[in-house]
Design goal:
The structure holds two protein chains of two kinds. By secondary structure, chain A is mainly alpha-helical. Chain A contains 14 helices and two strands. Chain A has a two-stranded antiparallel sheet with strand order 1-2. The chains are: A mainly alpha, B alpha/beta.
């Protein structure tokens, strides 16, 4: 009984129920919605958002916040593409991915040094680096979009896990890029739950002071977190460019609030220490559904923002309100 | 009884100065395996400095630290931990978001240098530690859901899991109810039998005397008493700690003709308290006592409108006070001093003066502008009347000792000239000397015709300050006793019934 109530009070359950309701409503209004092509479209749309969200979740769990990851993603993606086009057009796609992740990790390390090394507040640091990375990219690297991306990157985006044709003749496919989201989730799960490093990330999110006292290397852990987020941003950026088949330096930036919204919807708390991968993925799924499929329900696209806002207020407000009521009853 | 066995820890001639001030001068301390020692002293007596020296956080200027007969000229925190010296801080240093098992196992896991986290191993560590203290806890439960007593248990188990040989407990009983203190003492006995030494650091020690072999009292950085626990009692302890006699007072008798001030009728809040009725006359001090969870705190909050009762009436001088409205309660002359002054009572980073004046800003506002001078002058006046020792009234209030902080909260309310003060745990975390002075203030206020309600589980405090005591059990008032007619033991018995 209490277990049930506990499960109902959790964000994961709530978000899953909303997703279910959304899918049912969309299917009722257009039976074609519930089909393999739609699901694959949605899966495809969650790849970049999902990888970014996993990174953000790790930062939130550690008790910090990062808003610069979209700028890192754009920077890494654009620099890598430019590098490839100019100097090594034949580098295989995995080489390009490694370069982009390395650039992302380096930029993440700058955040890490400022936050872990100098002990500066995470929101302020990443707000600053968001502007700096983006400004530096547009001023010194380039602001023109690169449409002739290297053939290796284009080939990568053509690699499909499944492809087929529907009864009505429409094509559907799921690119291998999706496997990267799966991989990121698995690697992050292993780090968070199976290594002392991961437990340290949870611990410092729970209480930095306690972590210091029991002898956790707080700074090293924080530094890792920002490097990891940077690397994931680099990966998300290059996947984005490959799939869009164009490297647009103006892309991605502006997405940070949607990503943070997805993570918070999934139950991660801004005060740190709490967050699950399941919740994060559900949050991403919900945001993607709203962004891509609201139109099916006959709701104008401009309403997306309102719907996402309402979902955040209900999705995170309801459990918080329940917890508050339970606490006041116990007092 | 403590003479046998080689000492585990031997401190001799420890001296530590900060900016020319002797925090410790020539202090010695010996702790043997399986021995429990009380380290008593008021705030500022040097207790915390001694803990820091023992745990390697601070290096003494002079003196030697010997552990297992081996001298450590420069002991680091790591060396202290390796020698099995563990400190349990007042806040327990736990991770609220992690499970009981992980909180217990974390130190041992880190010490083992493992990179991979093995949940099964952590569970095994936690289970063994819990077995050593003979307690059971849900290993999967998140620590944030535990009671204070259980959190303390987790902290003790963590120290045990990391092979503690000396556990230093900083103010272990402050947040515990009487019954939980008994459980803690039971655990300490098991630890001693297990060969683990315990150092209690506290200024509220009467209750731990029975498990201690040895008592050491510090005052102004010097050791002023050191001897077998049997030679000390509550009175002699506080004499050593304060350097003066603190008489056990009882309140002045109440004037028979005192008018009725407060009437509470059938106050009910589901799950907190039920059908609570009582009255209070002007100049009367009423105690409300009960174990944690008996509803005493909710009742206190309800009187000040912080908790909205579902039924019942609160009348002050015949006027009904609107329920669940703290602003209306304050306006009609009720003051409330919360139990946790740090989070509920004070603006810690703001100045002492501002903390007092904040309650009176409206009265000193002309045309929407705060008349600073009169507000500050009034605040200063109240600080003086309550003899708050303020070196600098502009200093942040958190720089004050517990006793002085409590007086700042009191000063804020008294500046509003209330007719009823609700004091929730007036001397929690306050040292013996200040405590007696706060009791003096309560008596003084009552003599001037204020009604005072003291909510506390500190029985000597209730007996020393109150005319009458209400006993709450499971949300109901089960007893309404004249304080003069009951002994501490009898009161403790009724609370637990």
């Amino acid at each position: 009984m209490t277990r049930w109530r506990e499960a109902l009070g959790r964000n994961e359950t709530l978000v899953a129920l909303v997703i279910l309701a959304f899918v049912v409503a969309a299917t009722l209004s257009d039976p074609r919605f519930f089909s393999i092509p739609t699901m694959m479209d949605l899966a495809r749309a969650s790849i970049v958002l999902g990888i970014l969200a996993v990174g953000v979740m790790v930062v939130l769990v550690s008790g910090g916040i990062d808003v610069s990851f979209t700028a890192i993603a754009a920077f890494a993606m654009y620099c890598t593409t430019l590098l490839l086009v100019t100097y090594m057009p034949d580098l295989p796609w995995y080489g390009a991915f490694a370069v982009s992740m390395a650039i992302g990790a380096t930029l993440g390390a700058i955040n890490g040094i400022l936050i872990a090394g100098f002990g500066l507040p995470t929101l302020i640091v990443t707000l600053g680096t968001l502007a700096i990375f983006r400004g530096f990219l547009l001023t010194f690297v380039g602001s023109r979009l690169i449409s002739n991306i290297p053939s290796e990157m284009r080939d990568f985006s053509r690699m499909m896990i499944v492809r087929g044709t529907n009864a009505d003749g429409s094509f559907y496919s799921l690119p291998w890029a999706f496997a990267f989201l799966v991989g990121v989730v698995i690697v992050t799960w292993v780090i968070l739950y199976k290594t002392m490093l991961g437990r340290a990330i949870f611990a410092i999110g729970g209480s930095v002071e306690s972590a210091r006292r029991v002898g956790i290397a707080v700074r090293r852990t924080q530094f890792f977190v920002y490097v990891y987020v940077g690397a994931l941003a680099g990966l998300a950026g290059i996947i984005h460019a490959s799939m869009a088949r164009v490297a647009n330096p103006f892309d991605l930036v502006g997405l940070e609030l949607s990503v943070i919204a997805a993570v918070v919807l999934g139950g991660a708390r801004l005060i740190g220490g709490y967050g699950t991968l399941t919740g994060t993925l559900l949050g991403v799924a919900l945001i993607v559904l709203v962004r891509n499929s609201l139109v099916v329900l006959g709701i104008p696209a401009t309403w997306q923002m309102v719907v996402i806002g309402v979902l955040i207020l209900i999705g995170t407000g309801l459990p918080a309100w329940q917890a508050k009521r339970a606490a006041s009853r116990a007092a | 009884m403590s003479a046998d066995g080689e000492p585990l820890v031997e401190l001799t001639g420890i001296t530590k100065t900060y900016a020319g001030i002797h925090a410790l001068s020539d202090v010695g301390l010996t702790i043997r395996p399986g021995e429990a020692v009380s380290l008593a002293g008021e705030n500022g007596s040097g207790k915390s400095t001694l803990i820091k020296v023992l745990s390697g956080v601070e290096q003494p200027d002079r003196g030697t630290i010997r552990i297992d007969g081996e001298t450590h000229p420069h002991m680091s925190p790591r060396q202290a931990a390796a020698a099995g010296i563990m400190v349990i801080f007042q806040d327990f240093s736990l991770f609220p978001n992690l499970s009981v098992a992980e909180n217990i196992a974390v130190s041992a896991e880190l010490a083992s240098g493992a990179r991979v986290y093995n949940a099964a191993r952590a569970h095994g560590t936690a289970r063994r530690a819990l077995a050593r203290v003979g307690a059971e806890l849900d290993l999967q439960a998140r620590v944030e859901t535990l009671s204070v007593a259980h959190k303390q248990l987790v902290a003790i188990c963590r120290a045990l899991a990391a092979d503690a040989r000396l556990i230093i407990m900083d103010e272990p009983t402050t947040a515990l109810t009487e019954r939980e203190v008994r459980t803690l003492l039971g655990i300490i006995r098991r630890l001693k039998a297990d060969g683990v030494a315990v150092l209690f650091v506290s200024h509220k020690l009467a209750e731990v005397l029975e498990v201690c072999e040895h008592v050491v009292v510090l005052r102004n950085g010097r050791k002023v008493a050191d001897g077998p626990a049997a030679e000390f009692d509550a009175a002699s302890l506080s004499r050593h700690m304060t350097g003066r006699d603190i008489a056990q007072t009882s309140p002045a008798p109440l004037d028979e003709a005192a008018p009725l001030l407060l009437e509470v009728e059938g106050l009910t809040k589901q799950g907190a308290f039920e059908d609570v009725s009582f009255s209070l006359r002007a100049g009367e001090v009423l105690g409300v006592s009960g174990l944690l969870g008996s509803g005493r705190t909710s009742l206190a909050k309800a009187l000040f409108g912080l908790v909205r009762p579902e039924a019942g009436l609160i009348r002050l001088r015949g006027q009904v006070i609107p329920a669940g409205d703290p602003i209306a309660a304050a306006a009609s002359g009720i003051g409330y001093v919360p139990e946790d002054r740090l989070t509920e009572g004070l603006f810690l980073t703001q100045s002492i003066l501002h903390n007092v004046a904040i309650g009176r800003t409206e009265a000193h506002t002309r045309l929407g502008v705060l008349a600073g001078h009169s507000a500050w002058a009034e605040a200063m006046d109240w600080l003086r009347r309550l003899s708050v020792k303020v070196p600098d009234p502009q200093a942040p209030v958190r720089s004050l000792s517990g006793g002085n902080q409590q007086r700042v909260v009191l000063a804020r309310w008294l500046a509003r000239t209330p007719s009823l003060l609700v004091l929730n745990g007036p001397s929690v975390g306050v040292d013996v000397g200040s405590k007696a002075e706060i009791h003096g203030i309560i008596a003084d206020l009552a003599a001037r015709g204020l009604g005072v309600i003291v909510i506390s589980d500190d029985l000597p405090e209730l007996l020393a300050t109150c005319h009458r005591i209400l006993v709450m059990v499971d949300g109901r008032v089960v007893d309404d006793i004249a304080a003069a007619a009951i002994s501490e033991a009898e009161l403790a018995h009724r609370l637990a019934s």
